[in-house]
Amino acid sequence: MTPLQRSLQARLSLALTLAILAVALCAGAFGFLSAYRDSIRQQDDLLLQVGTLIARLGGTLPEDGAVGSYPGADHESRISVQWLPEPGQSPSAVAALPLPSGLRDGFQTAVMFHENFRVYVQPLPTGRRIALAQETDVRDGIASRSAWRAVIPVLLLVPVLLLALRRIMRTLFAPLTQLRREIDQRRDDQLDPLATQGLPIEISPFVDAINRLLARVQGAMTAQRRFVADAAHELRTPLAALSLQAEGLQQSELSDTARARLQRLEQGLERARMLVTQMLALARAQDQSAASPRTRLLLREAVRPVLQDLLPLAQQKDIDLGVDGPLTAEVDSNPVELGLLLGNLIDNAIRYTPPGGCISLALAAAAQTPPGRVRLEITDNGPSIPASERERVFQPFHRLDPAAAPGAGLGLAIVQSVAARLDIMIGLAATDEKSQTGLRVILDIPASGQA
After folding, report:
1. For 415-420, which contacts have Cβ atoms below 8 Å and span 24 or more sequence positions?
2. Average pLDDT of 368-389?
3. How many CA atoms lie within 13 A of 116 on its CB side?
């Protein structure tokens, strides 16, 4: 099916356009013919009026009539008037038009000099008759010009109607366009009902059906998140018990082989505890029913505790972790959740940055910052993320290279969920655009007073 067949607006516009063109064509043809015939009748009336006037004046007319020389007469004279020869009388030698004597009174068409003439014969009180003649070419030219003058307004009106139709269609479909734009701009987890105010009656049932579908999807997602949270919570107790048992075994006398296996067991338990912790954090971050009260705070107040917690991990890998410039900008956010977001981002950067690398936090210049936002950039010199993968990395359990660093692939999913709650826009780019190395995370945080 072509785009034209799929688009109701395009099909309706095409149908109305064809209807307007068809009506305009019919109206133009009818107007042209009507104006043409009216002009011919008016010229007949003119011949009749001139003949009647001459008859009332007593038929005073020169013997050679009132006409130019034929052929080649001046068309501007329009009408020629001359005496008709009486029965049995030959045409006058001075007559310009060789009118036959057998012409009847009234209107008729005669052929002279290989041209058609419209002739009106007017009897006089004296018994003689006069003939008023006009070339049909002249009459047709006058009628055609008159008809075109009547049709031109219709032809000029058609483009105006088509432009008006386009604007009307755009106005009528504006609510649908706005509704589509609103749906496209929604996040994956934004399932609140669509507004139905101002929508046409024909569209409201579809929007109501979409809202019911959103309600069912939201219920299913809530049940899924509750299941994940409950499962993760229930796993914490047996994992804690297994960890205690492993710690107890550390105090026992074990062979080197058993101690190596115990170490691998403890590493597995640590990864399991981390996974459970991240699953609980993701479930809490995706819970849209929980309010996230925002407050006015300095950005450095949210960054400082995160750096203090992660600095030992960075030092273990000999990574330079620091702030480039003072973070004195005021933002409108939740300090706890903003700290969770920054913690996951910096933790990811530490995991993927090679030893001896550098991780920096800095505020972007005002010219590069959207209005009403504070832009914080986290840059590192580790591996970059290909442009084709920058959307997928925010999906839960999605990892580019599982062997590159330990983890479950939930960190960026938590970041995206928290960012959605705090109205923070996230962008990913390469630190060095030319070589496509390093990762630059761009956070556009609402500025103070822009909640």
Report:
1. 415/341, 415/344, 415/345, 417/189, 417/282, 417/285, 417/286, 418/285, 418/337, 418/338, 418/340, 418/341, 419/341, 419/443, 420/187, 420/189, 420/190
2. 86
3. 8
Output Rg (C-alpha) for the chain, integer angstroms: 47
In 201-252, the DSSP E strands lie at: none
320 with 359: CB under 8 angstroms? yes
Alpha-carbon distance 325 to 327, whole Å?
6
Instruction: Give the CA count within 13 Å in the CB-facing half-sphere of 31.
Output: 17
- pLDDT tens digits along 106-134: 888 888 777 888 888 888 887 788 888 88
Residues 171-221 have pLDDT tens digits of 887 878 888 888 887 776 677 788 877 777 777 888 888 888 888 887 877
pLDDT, position 88? 60
The 10 Å Cβ neighbour count of residue 56 is: 9
Q: Name the helix (H) or strand (E) containing 426.
A: strand 425-429
Q: What are the tokens at 306?
A: 């995160």
Contacts of 186 (CB under 8 A, 6+ apart): none
Q: Which two tokens stand for residue 67?
A: 């006409």
User: Taking the CA of residue 140 as centre, how many other CA atoms within 13 Å lie in the half-sphere pointing to its CB?
Assistant: 7
Tell me the β-bridge partners of 377.
Answer: 362, 442
Strands 439-446 and 373-380 come out as: antiparallel
- pLDDT, tens digit (0-9, with 9 covering 90-100), for 253-292: 777 787 788 778 777 777 777 777 767 676 666 666 555 6
Tokens of 423: 């109205």
Assign 140 to helix, strand or coil. helix
DSSP state of 327: -
| Alpha-carbon torsion, ordered 281, 282, 288, 294, to 10 deg | 50
Which amino acid, 183?
Answer: I
378 forms beta bridges with: 361, 441
Q: What is the pLDDT of residue 408?
A: 64
- Contact by Cβ (8 Å): 130, 81: yes
* Per-residue pLDDT at 451: 41
In the numeric block, which tokens belong to residue 386? Answer: 């290909």
pLDDT at 284: 67
Given a contact cutoff of 8 angstroms between Cβ atoms, the answer to whether 250 and 276 are in contact is no
* Number of other CB atoms surrounding residue 108 within 10 Å: 13
pLDDT at 73 over 60: no
**First-residue to last-residue Cα distance in the chain:** 45
DSSP notation for 104-138 = PSEEEEEEETTEEEEEEEEE-TTS-EEEEEEEHHH
Distance CA 400, CA 392 (A): 9
- How many residues belong to the chain? 451
